[in-house]
Design goal:
The chain has 424 residues and is an all-alpha fold. Helix content is 81%, strand content 0%. The protein has two domains: 215 residues, Up-down Bundle (Growth Hormone, Chain: A); 201 residues, Growth Hormone, Chain: A (Up-down Bundle). The chain is built from 23 helices and no strands. The protein is globular.
């Protein structure tokens, strides 16, 4: 793409990079909401998992339709639709808090996730077209760097604007006058109104900007994901199917661990309030970001399948320590696991996509749909936590890393370029 064209699409590039920040923020605000809603609505751990179930169901159902609409109508249309859905979902938190019903919040989260499906299926390929094709992977890596910044921002917003330092045990709540107890729960529920109202308005402003900014036309290619033969063909690729299974369990492990980090911290460190417990989630995300850069550097010396296997083994060990030992040692192990989770999603994705040729888009849709594991395994952890305690629930992610390890061991050393892996 000529330099003049680069300048022409500079506003589009800036806005697209911002999208990586915006969906990272939305994803990790869920981890805060799980802890917050547990207290505000007096939920079991399984009931709190509905947050992730509603969210990832939106991703699962809209992944392919969003890709099809983006292909048919172009990047701009898909991004505007995604931002409008994101904004609508965030703004729905206001009436949801007014009515004080948990399921209204779940519906709002589903709408947000539907919007993010449009943004993610458009932003990644768009970044490869906003400039010189020779530097496409580098641009995408820089854009991806905005994502962990967004995830950290989400935790900080949740910690300081949603979570409170006020915590009462069951005996204290039972002794309260009914009116005071009702007022306490009400104050917890409405705490989400202002943060999500601001997020909704900001995202709406981005949608308006996207309407007036010029985007490049989407290039046609030979990979038509809208035809049934394409989807039938991908199911004949055993390695791709194994990658989808590995991604299902990996995303389930990642989402489950982060969803219950605050809960785990409060259970294993007596007297820890929600805000202090959120610090452990914050550190987890920082380590995750550091691990992404460190893992990328290691790929210059270690093949991707071997590095994936090594990181899966360490993740397995740390999650097992958290599940069996508990206490401060278990909490530190759980936090440290985020460093070793860092490269697993993009590496599984890249190894699974290797050699697909014209089936790449259909294969990518299959792997992206596998993130429904975030809903399924988080629900399973909620059930285990209610039955056996939160420590036992952490053993489910430990088992998930075994699946990732099997995939890594069965992956041939494809010799993938490092930037091809870190671009996901």
């Amino acid at each position: 793409m000529p330099a003049t064209t680069n300048r022409q699409y500079l506003p589009a590039m800036i806005l697209t990079v911002s999208l990586f920040f915006l969906w990272g923020m939305a994803n990790n605000l869920n981890d805060i909401l799980i802890a917050h809603f547990k207290k505000a609505f007096i939920l079991s751990d399984f009931q709190t998992s509905f947050v992730q179930q509603a969210f990832y169901l939106g991703y699962f159902l809209l992944a392919v339709p969003a890709a099809l609409i983006g292909r048919a109508r172009g990047y701009k249309t898909a991004i505007v639709i995604g931002l409008l859905l994101y904004a609508a979902g965030a703004l729905l938190f206001y009436p949801a808090a007014h009515f004080g019903q948990y399921y209204y919040f779940l519906a709002a989260l589903f709408v947000i996730a539907c919007g993010l499906a449009f943004l993610e299926t458009s932003a990644n390929p768009l970044m490869t077209e906003l400039g010189d094709p020779r530097s496409a992977a580098r641009r995408l890596n820089w854009a991806q760097a905005a994502n962990p910044v967004g995830t950290i921002a989400g935790v900080l917003i949740g910690k300081y604007l949603i979570l409170s330092d006020v915590a009462y045990d069951e005996a204290t709540l039972a002794a309260m006058a009914p009116a005071r107890r009702t007022a306490f729960y009400r104050s917890e529920i409405v705490a989400v109104q202002t943060p999500y109202l601001i997020i909704g308005l900001v995202v709406l402003a981005f949608a308006v900007a996207a309407m007036v900014i010029r985007f490049p036309d989407r290039h046609a290619d030979d990979d038509d994901i809208g035809t049934a033969p394409r989807f039938i063909e991908v199911f004949r690729r055993p390695h791709l199917l194994l990658a989808a299974v590995a991604q299902f369990f990996y995303v389930g492990a990642q989402v489950g661990i982060w969803s219950y980090t605050i809960r785990y911290a409060q259970t294993n460190v007596p007297g820890l309030n929600e805000r202090a417990a959120a610090d452990y989630l914050f550190v987890s995300l920082v380590l995750f970001g550091i691990g992404r850069f460190a893992g990328t550097a290691m790929m210059g010396m270690i093949s991707p399948p071997r590095l994936l296997a090594g990181f899966a083994v360490v993740s397995l060990m740390l999650a097992t320590i958290a599940g069996l030992i508990g206490g401060t040692t278990g909490l530190y192990a759980l936090v440290a696991a985020s460093f070793f989770m860092s490269i697993q999603f993009p590496t599984i994705f890249a190894l699974g996509m290797d050699g697909l040729g014209s089936l790449r888009r259909a294969g990518a849709s299959l792997i992206i749909m596998a993130i429904i594991g975030g809903a399924v395994l988080t629900g399973g952890m909620g059930v285990l936590s209610d039955l056996r305690g939160i420590n036992a629930a952490i053993l489910l992610p430990a088992l998930s890393f075994v699946v990732v390890l099997i995939f890594a061991l069965r992956s041939r050393d494809a010799g993938l370029p490092i930037d091809q892996i870190t671009a996901h």
